[in-house]
Backbone:
């Protein structure tokens, strides 16, 4: 998108007792237009967002991984041409990746099934929340992987021990052994089904090597889509900011909103906070089109509106 980026490692800012979260968030958000945080504890992202003046994107926490879900759904849409009628089956731990995928599916009207052992499934309150999503379709929790993949057009796995669960690795390997995404399981899904994984993958654990590297696997395309999805997300947030707070919460696509935003932001009329884009992009319209020019077939922008909102709640 042409903007500069600051990378702050974990030795900077809050968390070490050097600076309060409030002061850190208020100062950082006066330097930048968007903050992306990859944090171990989800509360770190929530705390930062509470005090930040600019949008805070959850780049991965122990609770959820919404950016990954955007790329996942984009990959599914890209393969099948539509999300309508698709079914995602997640096999394994009801972890951060699974949680956001479930939210994304419920928001975008995609059937979602998850298979995992007792004690490693989503809490009932989470299912209740998903069922309340206006576009939610079929949502299934089962201990049986075969039941979950029946009819699935996308089969998804992730590691059995996520961040912070390293000490449970051996125990989880034993408990999750029946939940490997292998050729036998893929054969029970829709014949057109794709295999997805957020990476890094453990071949021989949650996925067999033949599935991971086989013809149904779209894991590399999926990883590439992290780039396009996150570019779209950033662009969407920046354009929304440009369009003003009256546009917040609107379900209109940024791209479709051009006539609206153009009136308020004629070329050369970028607010000061977007000065860094000035030499490359002179209007809101151009900003939105940067994403479209590069991946015009992907409709990256309009895709996000329902998927992103409320992901951090
Ligand atoms: N569930 C994994 C996701 C990595 C992207 C973890 O938390 O380690």
Residues:
């Amino acid at each position: 998108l042409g903007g500069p980026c600051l990378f702050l490692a974990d030795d900077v800012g809050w968390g070490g007792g050097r600076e309060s979260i409030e002061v850190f968030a208020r100062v950082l958000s006066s330097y930048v237009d968007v903050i992306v945080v990859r944090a171990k504890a989800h509360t770190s992202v929530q705390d930062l967002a509470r005090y930040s003046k600019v949008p805070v994107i959850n780049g991965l926490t122990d609770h959820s991984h919404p950016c990954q879900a955007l790329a996942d759904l984009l990959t599914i849409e890209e393969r099948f041409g539509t999300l309508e009628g698709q079914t995602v089956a997640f096999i394994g731990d009801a972890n951060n990746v699974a949680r956001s995928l479930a939210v994304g599916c419920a928001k975008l009207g995609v059937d979602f099934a998850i298979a995992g052992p007792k004690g490693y499934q989503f809490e009932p309150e989470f299912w209740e929340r998903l069922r309340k999503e206006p576009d939610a379709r079929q949502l299934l929790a089962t201990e049986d992987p075969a039941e979950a993949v029946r009819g699935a057009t996308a089969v998804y796995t992730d590691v059995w021990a996520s961040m912070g669960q390293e000490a449970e690795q051996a125990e989880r390997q034993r408990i999750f052994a029946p939940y490997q995404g292998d050729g036998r399981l893929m054969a029970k899904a829709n014949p057109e089904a794709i295999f997805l994984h957020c990476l890094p993958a453990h071949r021989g654990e949650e996925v067999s090597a033949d599935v991971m590297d086989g013809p149904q696997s779209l894991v590399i395309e999926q990883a590439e889509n992290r780039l396009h999805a996150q570019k779209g997300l950033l662009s969407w947030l920046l354009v929304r900011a440009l369009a003003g707070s009256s546009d917040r919460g609107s379900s209109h696509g940024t791209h479709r909103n051009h006539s609206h935003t153009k009136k308020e932001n004629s070329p050369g009329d970028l607010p000061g906070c977007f000065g860094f884009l000035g030499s490359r992009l002179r209007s809101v319209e151009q900003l939105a089109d940067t994403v479209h020019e590069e991946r015009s077939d992907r409709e990256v922008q309009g895709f996000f509106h329902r998927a992103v909102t409320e992901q951090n709640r």
